[in-house]
Amino acid sequence: MNKQLELYDVTIIGGGPAGLYTAFYSGMRDLKTKLIESQPELGGRILTYPEKMIWDVGGVTPIRGEKLIAQLVEQAKTFEPTIVLGQQISGFERQEDGSIVLTASSGEQHHTKTVILAIGYGARKLVKLEIEGADRFEVTNLYYTVQELEGFRGKHVLISGGGDSAVDWANELEPIAASVTIVHRRSQFGGHERNVSNMRSSSVKICTPYSVEALLSSNGSSIDQVTIAHLETGERELLEVDAVIVNHGMKCDFGPVEGWGLDLGAWHVTVGEHMETNLPGVFAAGDFVTYGSKVELIAGTFTDGIMALNSAKQYLDPEAPMMAYVSSHNEKFKEKNRALGVTEDEESE
C-alpha cells in the first residue's frame, strides 16, 4: 500500500439487491461502509429486465424491476455509505494487520477490514442464439431482453427459453400481443410454479421439446418467419412472427475473483452457515453463494446479506450483539423518524 487510504469497516462488492440491502443493514449496525459496483449504475441483474414484474418480495405488492431497484437504492443510502460505480475489483492483498487492500482494474485502491461479496453470477453475458447471421436482426426484431412491453402490443411474438424470465415475459405479453408462442428444449419449465401454471392455462402456445432452427427474412433486415424443430422426432414447423425474444440465460464469469483462493464452483462460492468463505474476513451473499438451505428468491438474498453483515460485525468485535435491534427499537431510527414527523408516542403504538 503506497499511500494512506481511508479505512472502512466493511466493503461490499456488488450493487444488486443483495449488496444494496446489505449496505442498508450495515448502517443499522453502525459500520463504516463502502459499496463498489462494476457497472455505471446500481441494480445488478435486474437491470437486464427493468419491466419484469416481481411478486415474491415480502410486504411488496407486484412491482416492476426498475422500481424495486430504485427503492432499494434509496434504502441503501439511508446511512450514507460511500458508493463507488464503474470499478471492477481485481486485486486482493492481505496486509500485516489483517486488513485488506482491494485494487480495481483501473488502479484505484480501497482499504477495508472486511469484505462482503455480492457479485451474483459475475459479469453478465447473455447467451445468444447460435444461428449464423442472427446478429444482424438485433437492430430490428430480435431481442435478448424486454425493455418496454408496449413495443410488442398487437404483435405475433415468439419466445425461446424456459427459465423464470421467459415464463414471466410470456405471461406479461399474453394480454397485449396478438399471439405468444414459447419454444423450449425441455418439457418442464424453470419458472416459479404458479407462473408456469398461469402460462399453461393461458392462450400462450407452448412448443416443447423444440428449439429454434432458423430465422427467415423476406427483406433481409427483419425476421418474419421462424423454423422450429422437435428435438425427438425432427419434425419442423414454420411460424409467422413479428418479434423474437431469446432468453437462454447468462454465462457466468467471476473474472479476477477466481484468482483470490476462494472455494469456487462453476456457479457459486461455498459458504458456511454464517455466510463466511474460506478466506478470513471475507463473507458473501446473494446469488453468488450456495449452502444447504439456500432460498433462491430475492427475499432470500436479503437474509444472506443480514447474516453476512452480522458475521462481519462479530469478526470485527466478537463481543458485539449477534444482530441489530429491529427498526422500531433501534436508536439509529429515532432521529430519522422525527425527520419524517413521527412522534415518540406514535413510535410506541
From TrEMBL:
Pfam families listed in its UniProt record = Pyr_redox_2
For this protein, the record's SUPFAM superfamilies field holds: FAD/NAD(P)-binding domain (SSF51905)
Q: How is the cofactor bound?
A: Binds 1 FAD per subunit.
Named cofactor requirement(s): FAD
According to the UniProt entry, its GO molecular function terms are:
ferredoxin-NADP+ reductase activity; flavin adenine dinucleotide binding; NADP binding
Q: Where is the FAD/NAD(P)-binding domain?
A: 8-292
Keywords, in A-Z order: FAD, Flavoprotein, NADP, Oxidoreductase
Q: Which reaction does it catalyse?
A: 2 reduced [2Fe-2S]-[ferredoxin] + NADP(+) + H(+) = 2 oxidized [2Fe-2S]-[ferredoxin] + NADPH
User: Which Enzyme Commission numbers does its entry carry?
Assistant: 1.18.1.2
State where FAD binds.
E37, Y49, I89, D287, S328
Task: Name the InterPro entries on file.
Answer: FAD/NAD-bd_sf, FAD/NAD-binding_dom, Fd--NADP_Rdtase_type_2, Ferredoxin-NADP_redctase_2
The top EC class is oxidoreductase
Gene3D superfamilies xrefs: FAD/NAD(P)-binding domain (3.50.50.60)
Spell out the family assignment given in the record's similarity comment. Answer: Belongs to the ferredoxin--NADP reductase type 2 family.
Quaternary structure, per UniProt, is: Homodimer.
Name assigned to this protein:
Ferredoxin--NADP reductase
Q: Name its species.
A: Paenibacillus sp. BIHB 4019
